[in-house]
Write a structure and sequence with these properties.
CATH topology of the largest domain: Aminopeptidase
Structural class: alpha+beta
Number of strands: 20
Radius of gyration: 23 Å
Shape: globular
CATH superfamily of the largest domain: Gcn5-related N-acetyltransferase (GNAT)
Bound molecules: coenzyme A
CATH class of the largest domain: Alpha Beta
CATH architecture of the largest domain: 3-Layer(aba) Sandwich
Distance between the termini: 27 Å
Number of helices: 12
Length: about 400
């Protein structure tokens, strides 16, 4: 695409990547020397996949952004998700519309590839809001004194034996190079069975590069879980960027592995689902779970996104929606949203639909989809009209909060 002298297009193998690395350093800071080869390989992979776009002014790179091919899990089902990252404009070109022009083109590309949804971690909101992304979920972290994990609370003695206390985690072993496909499969299974909303998986090669194949990351796989952690701040702190366990035995085993470092590590900082069992496994109130980042969601194709999402089996809703989406006009119009038997459907409203419809823009439908309560949307001006007595049923259908543990 060209417009006002700017050419916005995917990088090709013919492009010199040095301007991209220089722009990256200028926008986000210096990459430690040890991380550079991995970073450059990751950018090269995005170039090869056609998933990194540059804005060129007379051949000079002035802005770039990329997306990662992911899947996102929504109440037991997953769909393709484009995870946008590395949005940056050369400092001297900021505030002139370059960022928005680039993101407009990237959104169109994501739509062309059929992604129903896209997410990103924003450092500023207006540019993304203007294109239909909205705050939707969180990245939750807990900091736990390592010694508090050395003796976990036992199961309720009132229950026969108690699940998982004495059992071994099935298939638990240190991860190996080549475990990427297994890790993606296991993670997907855990997110499906736990019916979580928001977490993502990456391609096997990206998963391996990020969590398994780095000698400074220590990873374990079990039949129903993945743990990956590393030292931080010398050996003061352990950081677990990935801890997903599908059963009591695997959950206890992972916390046991982390707590085995308590002789050196003072704290364990872990990214987790806000309702991770660890709060209930600690003997004392030694944990604070907090939202350290927010991520934004965009429904690129609202009907496909609703169609691909899972819903609670007993949720039942039938409401009229009036959607307005300037950047993706195919989402605009009057729709009937029906949720029942664990699935949902967004169909064009036929005939003269009676009653007032719940009015939402691209941002409102994205936040609703992620489980932000309708009362919150009404009080922020992201939803209006409709029948307020249906709000509770919508909340039960989409039930938040949504979370991710992968930061990109
Ligand atoms: C954020 C960034 C990509 C925006 O690109 P840009 O070309 O400057 O933005 P545009 O001129 O297209 O403006 C788009 C919107 O973003 C807003 N915006 C621009 N720069 C901004 C900034 N630094 N902080 C907050 N908002 C900003 C503009 O006000 C505009 O909104 P408006 O039309 O409602 O006023 C660019 O400023 C940048 O590279 N910043 C440093 C890196 C960064 O933070 N990247 C984002 C990572 S998520």
């Amino acid at each position: 695409m060209t417009g006002s002298g700017l050419e916005i297009r995917p990088f090709t193998r013919a492009d010199d990547l040095e301007p991209e690395f220089a722009l990256r350093r200028r926008a986000f800071g210096v990459i430690p020397a040890g991380d550079r080869p991995r970073w450059q390989a990751s950018v090269q992979a995005s170039v090869d996949a056609g998933e990194i776009f540059g804005a060129f002014d007379g051949g000079r790179l002035v802005a770039s952004a990329r997306y990662f091919r992911m899947r996102q899990w929504w109440h037991g089902r997953s769909m393709p998700m484009a995870g946008v990252a590395g949005v940056k404009v050369a400092p001297e070109e900021r505030g002139r519309g370059v960022g928005r022009a680039l993101m407009t083109e990237l959104l169109a590309e994501i739509a062309r590839h059929g992604y129903p949804v896209s997410t990103l971690y924003p450092s500023t909101l207006p540019i993304y809001r203007s294109l239909g992304w909205e705050n939707a979920g969180g990245l939750y972290e807990a900091s736990i004194p390592a010694r508090a994990l050395t003796a976990l609370a036992g199961p309720d003695p009132a229950l026969d034996g108690g699940a998982g206390a004495g059992e071994d985690a099935a298939g638990l072993r240190p991860a190996e190079i080549g475990d990427g496909p297994a890790a993606v499969e296991v993670l997907g299974r855990v997110y499906r069975e736990l019916r979580h909303r928001g977490p993502n998986t990456r391609l096997p090669a990206d998963t391996a590069a990020r969590w398994l194949d780095d000698e400074d990351h220590f990873a374990y796989v079990a039949d129903d879980g993945i743990l990956s952690y590393r030292w931080s701040d010398g050996h003061q702190e352990l950081r677990a960027d990935l801890l997903a366990a599908g059963s009591a035995a695997t959950s206890r085993a992972f916390w046991r592995i982390l707590s085995s470092h308590a002789s050196l590590a003072r704290t364990i900082r872990v990214r987790l689902a806000p309702d991770d069992p660890v709060t209930w496994l600690l003997r004392e109130p030694d944990i604070a779970v907090g939202r350290s980042e927010m991520w934004m969601l965009r429904l690129v194709d609202a009907a496909q996104a609703i169609d691909g999402r899972g819903f609670p089996a007993n949720a039942a809703v039938a409401v009229q929606l009036e959607l307005t989406d300037a950047a993706r006009p195919g989402n605009s119009g009057r729709w009937t949203l029906e949720v029942g038997s664990g699935t949902g459907k967004l169909a064009p409203a036929v005939g003269t639909a009676n009653g007032s419809a719940l009015r939402l823009g691209a941002r409102g439908i994205a936040a609703l989809f992620a489980g932000v309560p309708v009362a919150t949307l009404r009080r922020t001006g992201l939803a209006a009209g409709g029948d307020v007595t249906a709000d509770e049923a919508l909340d039960c259908a989409f039930c938040g909060p949504a979370y991710m543990t992968d930061y990109f």
